[in-house]
Amino acid sequence: MDNYDIGDLITIETENTTYTGTIMPSLNDNIIVIKMKSGYNAGIDKNKIKLIKLINKGEKPNYKIPPLKISENNNLKNISILSTGGTVASRVDYNTGAVHPAFTADDLIRAVPELLDIANINGKVVLNILSENMTPTYWKMIAEEIEKEVKNGADGIVIAHGTDTMHYTACALSFMVDADIPIVLVGAQRSSDRPSSDAALNLISATMCATEQIKGVFVVMHGESGDTVCHLHRGVKVRKSHSTRRDAFKSINSIPVAEINPFKKQIKYLTELEKTNKNNIKINTNLEEKVALIKIYPGIDGNVINYYVDNGYKGIIIEGTGLGHTPETIFENIKYATDKGVLVAMTTQTINGRVNMNVYSNGRELQKLGVISCEDMLPEVALVKMMHLLGNYDTEKAKELMNKNLVGEITEISRFDSY
């Protein structure tokens, strides 16, 4: 078994099954990993292998790839692609089938050569983390890197990001970064080594949008399950709504900003956007991290609210039921929070629709306790917005601004509502 190298094409026979594929790197010495013709990887326990047959000896992988010689095109805009991790910024080594991070401009262009027709690309790594490990500290780092790139001449920014928390980062940057350029976050639901990968089309579409004369923070992902169009979403109006589908990201209580056809290199705007031809930027990375998000459920123990209050939290977002309700059994805990000066705000867990705490007595009583309504904000958006406001203002001013539309997070009149 030890006579076979990474890149070799082999057949493995076990007691019940036969596998054929190319040997890939493995993090476990007891497992042989192969990439099969289907594009999927298989890990086989060495103790269960009866026989290995060599089909073709592969070339020894060469990880030292010579740099590309690409001259700058003065007719194209300069786009910086900042990588924070995730599968969208990756390339496949076809000798081994392994997927490697694509951080430099050369890496990105090798992975997606179509980018050369869209813009002059500068690639830079900011982070290399799984997006579930994203933190407010990392949001600040990303904002600071955006500022550097714009001041160095970038006409637009693309941020390669893991999909699990991409909508949180998009929201945070919406409040922290005021730039006269497009800032576009992009991810992939399926990695570059899979035949159904959405990475290339998403990255192409995001880069197209980053060359436009629009301002704001956006998310680009597949607009349909097939390889047809991608959608441009506002960073404060989007949520990951499915765990696996390629069109997982949806605009909530809104419609996508634009539809992108990466094949025809066309962008069709579905709503009006502020246009700009400047490259000004200023950032404000002040955040109050002691803000909690609490989801209401039947039988919830109100002491969870006391826990946050007693541990110095400045704000609490409640993800209430329906139009913005909680069980009466936790009213005293909520009063304890507001009496201690904690800012408490109500959102809804229904995804679509608005909060309206004036319809039923429960909502009216909560308002008497000092709870404010977040009306047309997703819980994640309300959480990040409260962090931003409490990081820059006192509690009373933050309370006043929670329901003021700052960066497009509130739709004044929604055609999706019906009370």
Automatic annotation (TrEMBL):
Membrane is among the record's keywords: no
One Gene Ontology term of the molecular function aspect: transferase activity
Enzyme class, first EC level, given as a word: ligase
Reaction(s) catalysed (UniProt annotation): L-glutamyl-tRNA(Gln) + L-glutamine + ATP + H2O = L-glutaminyl-tRNA(Gln) + L-glutamate + ADP + phosphate + H(+)
Domain of life: Archaea
Homology family: Belongs to the asparaginase 1 family. GatD subfamily.
PANTHER family: 60 KDA LYSOPHOSPHOLIPASE (PTHR11707:SF28), L-ASPARAGINASE (PTHR11707)
Subunit structure and binding partners: Heterodimer of GatD and GatE.
Protein name in the entry: Glutamyl-tRNA(Gln) amidotransferase subunit D
Lineage: Archaea, Methanobacteriati, Methanobacteriota, Methanomada group, Methanococci
Gene that encodes the chain: gatD
